[in-house]
Amino acid sequence: MSIVRGRFFLFITLLLALVACAAPPLPIGKPIPPGYLYKAKFLDIRSPNEEGWYLAGAAQSGIQFTRHGDEKEETFAAQVSTFPLPEFQDADDFVNFIKRGFQADTNPERFTVIKANFNLTGVRKYRCVNVSAVIEDKQALTSPKHHEKLMLQSISLYCRHPVNKLAGFAVIYSHRGKSLYPDLTKDANAFIAGVQVPGY
What we know:
Distance between the termini: 29 Å
Radius of gyration: 17 Å
Number of helices: 3
Strand content: 35-45%
Order of helices and strands: HEEEEEHEEEEHE
Strand order of the largest sheet: 3-4-5-9-8-7-6
Largest sheet: 7 strands, antiparallel
Oligomer: single chain
Helix content: 10-25%
């Protein structure tokens, strides 16, 4: 995507405003209270509402939480990230933009896509796309020198921000393990519901 320098800096300004958290910072790698609220200028983000989650990373472009599962090599991740979002002629262009981004991030040498669904949703007052995927990770790093095959499931919501029209945000909940996690949809929807644009 080619954009002029002035518009690029406008994108960056919008993204910084979107996730500049006003909540008290919590240490990276430390347990997070269930449902802890990070209140940003244009986005309210709640951590997953279960015990055992840690803050894995926080930057001006987003935030990530993680926890270990009951099985060896089983992990969960929940994250919110922002990205510049161009204008589209119609809804199909928006869906195709998200599809292209997914494909670009899924290297076929490492990942085998079992299924990937992209659907517009009317669950919010602004335009969003639901994405659900099941992927085989053929080179999952499970220790500094060991790789193995694991299954990666994810449920995500990609939205155009209703206030910062040139910015989008993604809410992603994922599970990685030797087998599929049956409660992914329930847990993912709960986390996604905890990420809201104030007033919308």
